[in-house]
Design goal:
This protein has 303 residues and is of the alpha/beta class. The chain has helices at residues 2-20, 55-68, 80-88, 111-119, 144-153, 187-192, 209-218, 234-250, 267-277, 284-299, and strands at 24-30, 71-77, 95-97, 126-129, 157-160, 198-201, 223-225, 256-257. The protein has one domain (23-299): Metal-dependent hydrolases (TIM Barrel), CATH 3.20.20.140. The protein binds zinc ion.
Length: 303
């Protein structure tokens, strides 16, 4: 009986919280078609939670979370067909079109086709770039034609930092090495394209939070998201809590943006929001900045 009352109170609190939740921009959402749904993720997450059953239900569940939690914009990256499907089904103008890319020639792309996709507004943010998973870095020559185009059209760039899924190197990403997740490996990009809008994904992960923070200090144009770290494992939550404390202490919280990286588990969006909301060392203003204001500035939504 008492247990039931507690459960009810928790549900009530979550309901009220959702209702009053400040606007959110999710800088890190993944889309799929059935052709690649679940290819890179295990059937259950660290906590044993099962994934959505297919690409369509995954999209519906993610859209429901957008509505429930007042997520007004989301950077959606996946294969180009999935991103188009999401945009076509998005009646609330929430989807900002990204592209999930591991190697420059994924999806038969080259720089000419890439530039055309940008002109056609099929790519509004370049990323998530998972160079890490194929053993390259954004500073490598193979990525430079794409970055020059992003600079020319003022397209924001989103780059994976930190490690990947445990065991990934033994399965779908044999060239992935933890060392390739070091944010310092994009330093040459920041120097070559000083006007490029670029953000780190995962804030350097468990591996390189100090390098992420230092790079953001040294290159003030650099932002980061908090994606995956807020929910995927207790260990990432521990690292991201430290990162946020350090970013606040150092005065760089104004370049930190919310992201969930829900992958095939839409419930992770809610879990990430609740985790961030429960960090008591962040003020209400800090949270509003992380959830919305910093991303709105980075994306120049107000213009
Ligand atoms: Zn991601």
């Amino acid at each position: 009986m008492t247990k039931n009352i507690i459960v009810l109170l928790i549900l009530l609190q979550q309901f009220l919280f959702a209702d009053s939740q400040t606007k959110i921009i999710d800088m890190h959402i993944h889309s799929y078609t059935d052709s690649d749904f679940g290819d890179r993720e295990p059937a259950s997450d660290h906590y044993g939670k099962k994934s959505s059953s297919n690409a369509a239900s995954h999209r519906a569940e993610t859209f429901a979370a957008f509505k429930k939690w007042n997520i007004v914009k989301a950077i959606v990256s996946g294969n180009p067909e999935s991103v188009e499907t999401w945009a076509a089904n998005d009646s609330n103008d929430r989807v900002i079109k990204g592209i999930l890319i591991f190697s420059p020639h994924d999806y038969g792309l080259d720089s000419v086709k890439f530039e055309q996709m940008i002109k056609d507004k099929k790519i509004e943010v370049f990323g998530e770039i998972g160079a890490y998973y194929r053993g390259t870095t954004l500073s490598d020559s193979i990525w430079q034609p794409y970055l020059r185009i992003c600079e020319k059209y003022d397209i924001p760039v989103a780059v994976h930092t930190g490690g990947g899924d445990p065991g990934g190197t033994y399965s779908w990403s044999p060239k992935a090495r933890l060392k390739f997740g070091d944010p310092y490996l994009i330093e040459d990009v920041l120097i070559k394209y000083p006007k490029l809008r670029i953000y780190l994904m995962h804030a350097g992960g468990e591996d390189w939070p100090e390098h992420a923070l230092r790079l953001m200090a040294y290159y003030p144009q650099l932002y980061t998201d908090l994606a995956v770290m807020l929910w995927v494992e207790p260990n990432t939550q521990r690292y991201i809590t430290e990162f946020l404390k350090n970013a606040k202490h150092a005065g760089y919280l104004n370049k930190v943006m919310f992201g969930s990286d829900q992958m095939v588990w839409p419930y992770a969006i809610e879990k990430s929001i609740i985790f961030l909301n429960n960090l008591t060392f962040l003020t209400e203003q800090d949270k509003e900045d992380i959830f919305y204001n910093n991303a709105a500035r980075f994306l120049r939504l107000e213009e």
